[in-house]
Amino acid sequence: MAREKKDGLALNVRIDAGIYHELESICDDAGQTKTKVVERALQAYFSDYRSKQEKLKMLEDSAVLTRE
Q: How far apart are CA 43 and CA 39, in angstroms?
């Protein structure tokens, strides 16, 4: 049975050979495609980034309030 078509865009990147080989190894271990592993890694990165930005904003806002 064919996989359902994904509504996605192609992304071509050049990465360090060591990172690529580690990606391949993880994909083999997990039985997942490179696409799925990279998507999940990016989602985790984006989530972490947004969380850190929210915390930074709260710290900046509280610093402004304490100065007033």
A: 6
